[in-house]
Amino acid sequence: FERALARFRPELVGFTAYSHESGTMKRLAGTVRRLLPNTRIVVGGHHATVAPADCNIPDIDYIVRGEGCAPFGALVAALDQGDEPEGIANLLFTGDRFDATAASVWPRYPDPRTLPIPRRDLWDSRPYSCIWVHENPRDWQVLFPPVAMARTSYGCKMTCSFCIVPFLSGTTHMPRLVDVVAEDIARIHVDHVYFADDENFIDERFGFELAEALERRGVKKRYFAWARATTILRYPELLRRWKEIGLDGVFVGFEFVTNQELKATHKGGTVAHNERAHDTLRRLGIACHAAFMVRPEYGHAEFRRLRDYVNAMPPAQYSFTVCTPSPGTPDHEAARPAFWCGDAYDLHDCMHPLTPTTLPLREFGALLARQIHEAGQRHPLRVERHLTRPWELARIVNADWRYQQAFRELYRDYPRELWDWPGDARMTA
Fold first, then answer.
1. Is position 132 within any domain?
2. Fewer CB atoms inside 10 A, N or C side of the chain?
3. Domain end (from 71, 103, 135)
């Protein structure tokens, strides 16, 4: 990074970061300030939007909040003219000019029709790939195809208490123009497209119109999307239509295995909804990525309940995270007084509990690693024992081991006095 700065000597440097990356972002900003004291430094992205006060430090000059295309463009234009960027919506100054009142108000999301189409020609997408799910995999199927991302809409109408999206979008769902999205996807040169929408199919009319537009253009790609269980149940024919044009898998936030936990987080669905949605996807031949969360207060009984539930489910791709509500949400504000680590942002990665665990921290991580291992045996590839290309199998085994090991050693990321919290409880898993 320092060599690149010395070679390029930029007049403006921009950083973007999620909350768990904010410490790194601020350290890099400090490096720029030390090596190039006259260079302007701007930050944007998720963390700058939800926690602007945390970015109000001497090593940062400007903070862009919300969708950054317009304010960042206006900032660049002003600096290019030698002017101070005054009066730009969703742009904050740092230092004495930091506006705490403006920082406390959520930025308004712009009309998606005003957003530019991604300049995909500006970066080399060849290194990007991810594991691709199939409900009915075949022998020797490519597991890690080249993948590009696309976004068809922004926002969500729901109000889950742990999720920041309703606050950023004002509980609205805003689709982009159908033809613009279809043209963008048509220009993608790889065959697999991972949608970055908060919820792909909550707008039935838009979903059908986009499917028709893609088919009309002769676009033949494979898709992976995100959808709520209730959306799947409400619009099964929309999912069927997308299956016809290439939808392979859907990420579904199951979250918890009890109605009590789902109700407490205002999920707007039930365990029965999750199960019926999974059955619907299987009937349609669409793979399900079932995502669950565990709470820091889980004990042996809760981990056992989760393990038994998942082991009884049909084959699927599963993921498990620690419930770490986003800054700015009601759940985050309620939990903040109980945060037990120095800089909670550094550990805000959905892997680390931010509040004290009921079990010793080492044991909590070990049980979560066990849950991940056992659920991995429920993947369709393993259940149906499909033949896999050796190098891809090696990649899966290595990634799986490293992921589990990260949870087993999770306690090492905390102060040493917390490693065996709460005391000398025995491992009884």
1. yes
2. N
3. 103
